[in-house]
């Protein structure tokens, strides 16, 4: 399904080579709302002249990657969330540690991000920079990869405003812990954390719908099984989970959405209504009276979920972005340019050449 933003940019259909239906009309979902509410510095046509094929390069590559392993889509979607919630969508999560200390990437909540997701972003960066030069940021590539992960697993397609730049720093472990949310969190905790970022209850429920694909480790939900079963968890579901995680501290993974683990759809909400949500953070959305009706409405109406999900992703994707002259465009997504020996020597060589030409 394709959620079409009629932005007056000409035919979006021809851009991605397929046809879709216009779904949206509710007030806050109109293109006008987003157009007038884009963060300053972001644009719907940012790379139009400098790298017009960036989106098709990303999509083509990810199609190939997901054909081999569809699980990578979940890894990339989660990466965008973890990037945006800590310091903003600035690719700070991609940076390797340095002599100054361990990086954001090494903070506990990020240890379960997939190593392969980091590699895929660097592969995309290489492909895109080969074609256009160092003009596209790693942060934009993460946002595009998340969008394509949603679409290529069956979810809505949507335009992503671009123009994010890459950070020069990464967050401390403390800041990372203070911004991300553990699976053991209840709805009150989630709503409070999201409110700081101006995200509301509908955003909380819609964004949690990202758990319609991907995997979780026993450590993220075992407190619901041991010492006693969380009463909000279906009995048979708990019995099956105990087979995956037979004791506390067992290192195994299971799917987040038992009905359709690799398909981006609204079955995650159907699971919640049937008490088959994996994490406390998921299931409590159906227990808490502030979010229960929203869960039910998404379980009953997939188009509504897609519409709200896109809306919330666009909000999340603009959190504290660096634009204009702030930050940089990294030559390697895991290393800031000033620490990048390969890059600084190329820049120095170029400066040397320019200098000798002047002489
Ligand atoms: C509401 C707050 C959220 C909480 C508490 C939460 C919690 C978690 C936890 C505990 C895991 C499993 C980690 C592990 O055990 O390996 C996970 C995985 C995942 N999360 Fe979230 N999450 C939240 C929001 C989001 C958002 C906003 C998205 C994207 C829109 C998202 C997408 C994913 C995906 C796709 C996975 C599976 C990753 C994989 O298979 O590699 N989550 N999340």
From TrEMBL:
Residue pairs linked by disulfide bridges in the UniProt entry: 51-132, 84-89, 138-333, 218-245
Pfam families given in the database record: peroxidase
Cross-referenced SUPFAM superfamilies: Heme-dependent peroxidases
Record note on cofactor: Binds 1 heme b (iron(II)-protoporphyrin IX) group per subunit.
Positions contributing to Ca(2+) 1 binding: 83, 86, 88, 90, 92, 104
UniProt record, GO biological process: hydrogen peroxide catabolic process; response to oxidative stress
InterPro entries, alphabetized: Haem_peroxidase, Haem_peroxidase_sf, Peroxidase_pln, Peroxidases_AS, Peroxidases_heam-ligand_BS, Secretory_peroxidase
EC number(s) stated in the UniProt entry for this protein: 1.11.1.7
Cellular compartment(s): Secreted
Marked site: Transition state stabilizer: 78
Residue ranges of domain Plant heme peroxidase family profile in the record: 41-337
Function: Removal of H(2)O(2), oxidation of toxic reductants, biosynthesis and degradation of lignin, suberization, auxin catabolism, response to environmental stresses such as wounding, pathogen attack and oxidative stress. These functions might be dependent on each isozyme/isoform in each plant tissue.
Entry similarity comment: Belongs to the peroxidase family. Ascorbate peroxidase subfamily. Belongs to the peroxidase family. Classical plant (class III) peroxidase subfamily.
Name the record gives this protein: Peroxidase
């Amino acid at each position: 399904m394709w959620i079409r933003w009629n932005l007056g940019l000409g035919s979006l259909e021809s851009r991605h080579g397929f046809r879709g239906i216009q779904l949206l009309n509710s007030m806050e979902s109109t293109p006008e709302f987003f157009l007038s509410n884009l963060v300053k510095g972001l644009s719907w046509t940012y790379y139009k002249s400098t790298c017009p094929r960036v989106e098709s390069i990303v999509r083509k590559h990810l199609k190939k990657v997901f054909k081999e392993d569809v699980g990578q889509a979940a890894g990339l979607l989660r990466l965008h969330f973890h990037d945006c919630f800590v310091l903003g969508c600035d690719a700070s999560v991609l940076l390797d540690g340095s002599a100054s200390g361990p990086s954001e990437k090494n903070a506990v909540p990020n240890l379960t991000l997939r190593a392969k997701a980091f590699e895929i972003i660097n592969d995309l960066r290489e492909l895109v920079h080969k074609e256009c030069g160092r003009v596209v940021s790693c942060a934009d590539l993460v946002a595009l990869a998340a969008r394509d992960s949603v679409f290529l697993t069956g979810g809505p397609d949507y335009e992503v405003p671009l123009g994010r730049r890459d950070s020069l720093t990464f967050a401390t472990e403390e800041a990372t812990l203070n911004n991300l949310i553990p699976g053991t969190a209840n709805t009150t905790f989630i709503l409070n954390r999201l409110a700081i970022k101006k995200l509301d209850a509908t955003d909380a429920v819609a964004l949690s719908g990202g758990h319609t694909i991907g995997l979780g480790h026993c450590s993220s939900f075992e407190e619901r099984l041991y010492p006693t079963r969380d009463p909000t968890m279906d009995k048979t579901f708990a019995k099956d989970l105990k087979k995956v995680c037979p004791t506390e501290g067992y290192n195994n993974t299971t799917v987040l959405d038992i009905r359709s683990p690799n398909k981006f759809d609204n079955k995650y909400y159907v699971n919640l209504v049937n008490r088959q949500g994996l994490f406390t953070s998921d299931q409590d959305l159906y227990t808490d009276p502030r979010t229960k009706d929203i869960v039910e409405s998404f379980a009953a109406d997939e188009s509504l979920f897609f519409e709200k999900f896109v809306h919330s992703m666009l909000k999340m994707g603009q959190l504290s972005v660096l634009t204009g002259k702030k930050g940089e465009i990294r030559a390697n997504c895991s290393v800031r340019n000033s620490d990048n020996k390969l890059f600084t020597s190329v820049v120095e060589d170029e400066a040397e050449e320019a200098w000798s030409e002047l002489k």
